[in-house]
Amino acid sequence: MVQVTPLLLILGMVLVAPGYSAKKCVLTGRWMNELGSNMTIMPVNGKGEFWGFYHTAVTATTNKIQVSLLRGSQHRPNQQRHPTFGFTVKWSFSDSVTVFTGQCFVDEKGNEILKTMWLLRSHVDNIKDDWKATRVGTNVFTRLRPRQECSWEQGDSQASDDDDDSASCSFCSADCCFQ
Amino acid sequence: MVQVTPLLLILGMVLVAPGYSAKKCVLTGRWMNELGSNMTIMPVNGKGEFWGFYHTAVTATTNKIQVSLLRGSQHRPNQQRHPTFGFTVKWSFSDSVTVFTGQCFVDEKGNEILKTMWLLRSHVDNIKDDWKATRVGTNVFTRLRPRQECSWEQGDSQASDDDDDSASCSFCSADCCFQ
Amino acid sequence: MVQVTPLLLILGMVLVAPGYSAKKCVLTGRWMNELGSNMTIMPVNGKGEFWGFYHTAVTATTNKIQVSLLRGSQHRPNQQRHPTFGFTVKWSFSDSVTVFTGQCFVDEKGNEILKTMWLLRSHVDNIKDDWKATRVGTNVFTRLRPRQECSWEQGDSQASDDDDDSASCSFCSADCCFQ
Amino acid sequence: MVQVTPLLLILGMVLVAPGYSAKKCVLTGRWMNELGSNMTIMPVNGKGEFWGFYHTAVTATTNKIQVSLLRGSQHRPNQQRHPTFGFTVKWSFSDSVTVFTGQCFVDEKGNEILKTMWLLRSHVDNIKDDWKATRVGTNVFTRLRPRQECSWEQGDSQASDDDDDSASCSFCSADCCFQ
Q1: What is the largest CA-CA distance in chain B?
Q2: DSSP codes of every residue in A66-112
Q3: Is ipTM over 0.85?
Q4: pTM
Q5: From CA A33, how far away is CA B142, in angstroms rounded?
Q6: Distance CA D44, CA D52 (A)
Q7: B114: closest CA among B135, B86, B145, B77?
Q8: Neighbouring chains to C with at least 3 Cβ pairs closer than 8 Å
Q9: Which of A69, A101, A132, A136 would best serve as a mutation to test chain B binding (most B beta carbons within 10 A)?
């Protein structure tokens, strides 16, 4: 027994270390924030440029929400572990624009998190109303992953082997499963 | 003489009116803000997407300033007179990112003005410092135009015919001449 | 015994219901945010004015943190259930100032929550540096309550009857116990 | 002639130096911003605390504008030349609150200027709408002074001796005269 413990420890380090300690945050993938809005960022190119889709769960207008395009860039995708980034969402269902900026962090459990702040710019008809056209706020995004990935990761303790349950869960973030 | 004046007036209205009253603000071109920072926005495509160069006059770091790339989008370039827009500047001389959002207005004299707000996101090493990573502010940009254009526009009263003077003025905005 | 239970239930409803369903949020008391900063707001007067103490857990300077004074006001303390408010913290250990503004909400469980945004203004020596002097962010505060109060409220399921444990818990918020 | 010049220079320094080079910015007095909003700040006490009146020229609501109370504090009124400050305006004609923070500068001509940023918090009925409740912006205030004061200061070149003109000018800032 005494001999087995260090072996397990080393084995554990070999398996875990590459995944966690050196894990770099890349924006590509599917993300959800605390309001239920989600976005899909397409593969980031070598210059750090990307585009994708933003599906907001909330709106400051009365218009019907539609998926909108986002475009932006991040710092040095291959060099930085916790890159800063920025992107613009041009709302397809209104004349407004939102810009997000933030930094991608990997927490101690290896979960990625996007800490962002945003400015929502509304269209005004007259420059005299410019003063009231900008809202400000924060959003925290966690990564959504395909069901099979997080079932594997969460293990038996959290994920059910029940086929009915798994079938109804399409994506999972660090904390929960989305249908 | 009496007959010529109304004719000139009508001719002037025909030439000037389409330029001013229906003038649409397009972001393409060269702009300068109140801090002396300037940017060049390349032709905006049909989807409202654009890229360009940002040359800041100020920095929150001690690094040497270098020209940086900007990418963004504006609403409906052919439909809106005063479109909202957003863009990201990935600073080439630091790990920071700035996002700008605003609206392009045409004032009563036909001068274009970009009223913007921005968030400057600094890179932090630890998520515990995330709270202090975002600065906020405003910038107002006016269009820079080649010398010959504004000499023509400003007329004799403001522009000098003195060759030495004109030669030293490379760009002009609504208010002044930049060398 | 059978007869006592409904009586206790009704008594409980009478006592608890007015507290929750019509509960008005007043700022007076002790609050803690997600960064571990806490503040004590003294009794709000009839005009909605208040003062208190702010003990930040974080600083953008290298100075030793000290308790600082706060002053502000809230809307109609006796009329609104979810009043908006604002206050200024003049940092005693630096030349900076922070202003907070937000709204006090009572959630469905009767827990009070302060959703705030803030601007942190640093002192700059020259007006040319004014552009970079303002940081922006959010904070969420929950109420800290004396130990005996939350032991009573949380009941047996969450609070331990172990005397040693209770003794080490001085304040509790909606979620946890602070020592 | 040669002897007179240094004398005039010294005389000028004696007269100008106390007024300009050592001028400390104190918030007490009447101020106006670029939107035409004005505020009166009552004498700042020894702790840097103050209150006053804010008369906004603009509103994000449809309510009739009324004078509102402001309360705040500034850093070390007797020690700092360019103190930072913050204050809260509780709007008397709506459920909103605005917090301002900024710094008072004295420019090279001895004119005081308040560079501020603000957050305007609107009341929302449900915590789900909290995300869109905060607007952000900037304001620049210059001091309004009684007519006789600025007539004296501006001298003959700018101020007219014409009685009709002076009579119609009640307050003046660095740039202009308000009626």
Answers
A1: 77
A2: --EEEEEEES-TTT-SS-EEEEEEE-TTSS-EEEEEEEEEE-TTS-E
A3: no
A4: 0.80
A5: 36
A6: 10
A7: B86
A8: A, B, D
A9: A101
